[in-house]
């Protein structure tokens, strides 16, 4: 059985990301699963146990400054060399910014097609994508070369399948062109222990109605009680209430959690584009005519500053 | 500094969008087409750099004839001229082919700096900047929320899930920007009038020396097999808070097993 390469999405701080476990699960339906770890020295050792738990039978490790000190390009070179050598049945990469960028460079290097933002991948390489802000479902195939597919987080439930992967160290030789963009600093801004926005099974977002940066604590409080991530609408981000990396919508993150709680968000199409594939949607808004109520499974028309703290108190009582 | 801004015309993301039933490509004929929103931030960034460091700003668009509307709109913000790659054979081009055409066109423009939006609102694929950099063998600084130009040295803050990365490179380079980088200007009346007279050069595939079978449906490296509209979400229960709204909300969450 041919190998399927899964390019691991992980960070030192967050460990192996959930989307990686989803990719490992999907890959098992396509062939023998090999994980490709690209990062700083020791990355593969840090992630090996988790990757094995979800079915990686082999780990290729491309580590060190040559890979990690430059933006994206050396990683694409490493994957391209590996593809040429092992001739995998498919390459799965996370639908993160960096994942898509690796996929893009890989496609050019191999003169190969690629598909991004798949939520499903069939054994024959047919990918399912949700497009146009959740308005349509598309099935696509790579028609030139092998399937290079990026997988959107929260697409499937990862299933363990324990294996004991052997680690093979790759010698990554980055070209001069790969080294043109240096990464001089990596700065962590996200605080606390909240789950990552695109991977969280519960997301609580605040909008313009939250009315101030300070008042976002109302949103954060209920998010923490539910064990969820915090998001924000573009209006809230543009008003300076919350940082941009938490923006949900057409020009921000696309999330697809089990539960999405929209607080003080009117539900403009810009926002809906990023959240309407959520399984259950709950909304609190003082305007009974707000478009968010058209897609909410449960809506409360009222003052968020009364409704949300009361809900938080009620959750505390029940715990 | 010679700056080229990549501008894409896309169907308005505020209206209903679909794929064409005849060939499964994005329906552009009946749609209200606009400049991809993120590209307006790219134009603004280019103009700011020109204002601070001198040089020239060129808009580069690949698209059908009607993309001319978006080119004129882009020019009304202030760029000096435009290049429009237009050829019927380009219809249905995949990202790989698009990057080939744009990279070839860029090869004729001798740009120090290529700026584009981080993604388009139609495909949201995000791969073009790195594909172009890969083809041209130049630096890519993508996902910038802040860009500093110091002579030929570029420094960008690249937005990440955890925070940001500081990345540096020398020109020539491709930079892609998010909408946090600046506040695009509105075209002035004077700008709109001036845009009508600015030069727009049209290039065909033959002009670029790209074969027709390398692009469009003929040269596509991926294909849509089928598409269907997703069922529209319907409104569920809506209650008006009369003092117990928060409690009712939690009761719902308990019923659905989230609490």
UniProtKB/TrEMBL annotation, chain A:
Alphabetical UniProt keywords: Electron transport, FAD, Flavoprotein, Transport
Domain Electron transfer flavoprotein alpha/beta-subunit N-terminal, residue spans: 4-187
One annotated GO molecular function: flavin adenine dinucleotide binding
Gene Ontology biological process terms in this record: fatty acid beta-oxidation using acyl-CoA dehydrogenase
SUPFAM superfamilies the UniProt entry points to: Adenine nucleotide alpha hydrolases-like, DHS-like NAD/FAD-binding domain
Keyword tRNA-binding: no
Entry-linked InterPro entries: DHS-like_NAD/FAD-binding_dom, ETF_a/b_N, ETF_a/FixB, ETF_alpha_N, ETF_asu_C, ETF_asu_C_CS, Rossmann-like_a/b/a_fold
Cofactor note: Binds 1 FAD per dimer.
Binding, FAD: 208, 233-234, 247-251, 264-271, 285
Domain of life: Bacteria
CDD domains: ETF_alpha (cd01715)
Pfam families: ETF, ETF_alpha
PANTHER family linked to this entry: ELECTRON TRANSFER FLAVOPROTEIN ALPHA, ELECTRON TRANSFER FLAVOPROTEIN SUBUNIT ALPHA, MITOCHONDRIAL
Quaternary state and interactors: Heterodimer of an alpha and a beta subunit.
Function of the molecule: The electron transfer flavoprotein serves as a specific electron acceptor for other dehydrogenases. It transfers the electrons to the main respiratory chain via ETF-ubiquinone oxidoreductase (ETF dehydrogenase).
Family, similarity comment: Belongs to the ETF alpha-subunit/FixB family.
Protein name, entry field: Electron transfer flavoprotein subunit alpha
Source organism phylogeny: Bacteria, Bacillati, Actinomycetota, Actinomycetes, Micromonosporales
Gene that encodes it: fixB
From TrEMBL, chain B:
SUPFAM superfamilies per the UniProt record, alphabetical: Adenine nucleotide alpha hydrolases-like
MF (Gene Ontology): electron transfer activity
CDD domains: ETF_beta
Keywords: Electron transport, Transport
Domain Electron transfer flavoprotein alpha/beta-subunit N-terminal residues, every copy: 23-212
PROSITE patterns cross-referenced by the UniProt entry: ETF_BETA (PS01065)
Pfam families xrefs: ETF (PF01012)
GO CC annotation: cytosol
Family membership noted in the UniProt record: Belongs to the ETF beta-subunit/FixA family.
Function: The electron transfer flavoprotein serves as a specific electron acceptor for other dehydrogenases. It transfers the electrons to the main respiratory chain via ETF-ubiquinone oxidoreductase (ETF dehydrogenase).
Subunit structure comment from the entry: Heterodimer of an alpha and a beta subunit.
Name the record gives this protein: Electron transfer flavoprotein subunit beta
Organism this protein belongs to: Winogradskya consettensis
């Amino acid at each position: 059985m041919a190998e399927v390469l899964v390019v691991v999405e992980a960070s030192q701080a967050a460990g192996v990301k959930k989307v990686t476990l989803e990719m490992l699960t999907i890959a098992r339906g396509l062939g023998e699963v090999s994980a490709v770890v690209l990062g700083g020295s020791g990355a593969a050792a840090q992630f090996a146990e988790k990757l094995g738990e979800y079915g990686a039978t082999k780990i290729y490790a491309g580590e060190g400054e040559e890979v990690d000190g430059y933006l994206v390009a050396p990683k694409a070179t490493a994957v391209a060399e590996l593809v040429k050598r092992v001739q995998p049945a498919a390459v799965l990469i996370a639908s993160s910014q960096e994942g898509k960028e690796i996929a893009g460079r890989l496609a050019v290097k191999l003169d190969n097609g690629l598909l991004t933002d798949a939520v499903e991948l069939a054994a024959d390489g047919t990918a399912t994508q949700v497009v146009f802000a959740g308005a349509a479902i598309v099935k696509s195939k790579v028609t030139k070369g092998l399937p290079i597919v990026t997988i959107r987080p929260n697409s499937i439930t990862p299933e363990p399948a324990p294996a004991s992967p052997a680690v093979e160290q790759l010698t990554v030789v980055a070209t001069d062109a790969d080294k043109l963009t240096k990464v001089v600093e990596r700065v962590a801004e996200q605080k606390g222990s909240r789950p990552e926005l695109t991977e969280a099974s519960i997301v609580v977002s605040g909008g313009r109605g939250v009315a101030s940066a300070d008042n976002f604590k109302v949103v954060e409080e209920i998010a923490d009680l539910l064990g969820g991530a915090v998001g924000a609408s573009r209006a809230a981000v543009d008003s300076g209430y919350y940082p941009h990396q938490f923006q949900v919508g057409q020009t921000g993150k696309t999330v697809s959690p089990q539960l999405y709680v929209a607080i003080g968000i009117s539900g403009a199409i810009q926002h809906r584009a990023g959240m309407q594939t959520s399984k259950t949607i709950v909304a609190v808004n003082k305007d009974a005519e707000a478009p968010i109520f058209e897609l909410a499974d449960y809506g409360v028309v009222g003052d968020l500053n009364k409704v949300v703290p009361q809900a938080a108190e009620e959750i505390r009582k029940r715990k | 500094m010679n700056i080229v801004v990549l501008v894409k015309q896309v169907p308005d993301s505020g209206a209903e969008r679909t794929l064409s039933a005849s060939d499964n490509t994005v329906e552009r004929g009946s749609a209200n087409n606009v400049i991809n929103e993120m590209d307006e931030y790219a134009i603004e960034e280019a103009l700011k750099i020109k204002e601070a460091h001198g040089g020239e700003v060129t808009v580069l668009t690949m698209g059908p004839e009607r993309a001319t509307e978006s080119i004129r709109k882009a020019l009304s913000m202030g760029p000096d001229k435009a290049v429009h790659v237009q050829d019927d054979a380009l219809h249905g081009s995949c990202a790989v082919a698009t990057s080939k055409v744009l990279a070839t066109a860029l090869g004729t423009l001798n740009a120090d700096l290529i700026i584009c939006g981080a993604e388009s609102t139609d495909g949201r694929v995000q791969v073009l900047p790195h594909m172009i950099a890969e083809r041209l063998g130049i630096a890519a600084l993508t996902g910038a929320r802040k860009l500093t130009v110091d002579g030929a040295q570029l420094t960008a803050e690249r937005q990440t899930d955890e925070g940001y990365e500081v990345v540096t490179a020398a020109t020539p380079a491709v930079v892609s920007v998010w909408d946090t980088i600046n506040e695009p200007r509105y075209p002035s009346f004077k700008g709109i009038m001036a845009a009508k007279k600015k030069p727009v050069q049209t290039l065909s595939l033959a002009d670029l020396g790209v074969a027709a079978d390398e692009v469009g449906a003929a040269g596509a490296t991926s294909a849509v097999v089928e598409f269907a509209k997703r069922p529209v979400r319907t409104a569920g229960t809506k209650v008006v808070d009369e003092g117990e709204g928060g409690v009712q909300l939690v009761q719902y969450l308990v019923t659905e097993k989230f609490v």
